[in-house]
Amino acid sequence: MLVLFLSPVALDLGGRLSNGIAALIAVGNWMLSLLLATILEKHKLNGPLEIVMRRLVNKNH
Questions:
Q1: Which of 23, 38, 56, 58 sits at 20 to 30 Å (Cα–Cα) from 48?
Q2: DSSP element (H, E) containing 52
Q3: pLDDT digit string (tens) for 5-22?
């Protein structure tokens, strides 16, 4: 997510925003991922990367 927002290749907000705003974006991103992880754990669901990894591993067996 940070690459999408701050990278010059993507939205290039890193070149236009101050360090404080970039830090706020990073903290907001972290809080959003923490919230998502909590919701997934509460509902006993696997995350998207875990689903893909399990499919790849089980496909070979």
A1: 23
A2: helix 48-59
A3: 777 777 878 788 888 988
